[in-house]
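Before relying on records like the one below, remember that each one covers exactly one chain. Contacts with other chains, cofactors or solvent are not represented anywhere in the record.
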Amino acid sequence: MNLREINEELEINSLNPYASKSLYSKGRKKPQEKCNMRTEYQRDRDRIIHSKALRRLMHKTQVFISPEGDHYRTRLTHTLEVAQISRTIARALKLNEDLTEAIALAHDLGHTPFGHTGEEAFDKIWPDGFHHNEHSVRICEVLERNCEGLNLTAEVLDGILNHRGAGSPSTLEGKIVQISDKIGYINHDIDDAIRAGLLSEEDLPEESLEVLGKLNKDRIDFLIRDVISSSLGKNDICMTPHVKKAMYDLRQYMYETVYMSQLQMIERRKIARILEELYNYYKADENRLPKEYRKLISKGETIDRAALDTVAGMTDRYAMTQYSKLFLPDSWAVY
């Protein structure tokens, strides 16, 4: 018996009856010989960790665009924080930690430069609309590994696609990531907003703080504990109703005071222009596309789609560098 088979048997004998077991995965679109060391979900997690798309998240906006400071969160640090929260819950409930971690690490791979602001800009540009969860799946299935894709299991792809609020993941592990994403970004965005001087702890809605706690660390701990206690023994991942309401009230407060603030709206108009002009530039001539994205056209995709993939994959700083290089005059001097 090889190591993978030992771990598959261990999952069956030790995990929650409602947990996803690697041995019973629905598999991959392209059948592959199994690894003799790693389970299918471990293998997916490793592929995601080594992907270029994950590395690019280091230079993509979480909330604040081009913040001046080393401690503001990026899309990568958000992803790591969601993975940690998710694994804590999965371990407590004896669900599959490897599947949970794989979904958490990949859930935001499809975010555009400049975060949700960039996503909104692309949603207006692209006729079929643009949603980062769908683009995350496209990155995993099509764009990674020189447009060959990562060939992940169906359960990981399902969790990525359905991690947004309106989604309905088919596994409990996917549901853990869905709720952990909210726990993470609401509280961590508050932390960043306080650091930026946009609000203080005293500004937060008192009704929510009375339920969840006054401090950021206390709120996260409380929410994790509530999810675990509410979900024990159930074929579901849930929260007690009054706790869920308090969390969503806090989220609504952040939308009104931070996410949709006047400063953010001014920056949104600038970003929309940058991304639209970059998109129009690349779709005007196939030869302007990076080599790997020209490969998409040879596979039958349109130049418009390849141009969208090109710009959507950029980091914040690369998009601004390219915009400056392509559309702004160079400085010059006579010596």
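The mean pLDDT is 93.
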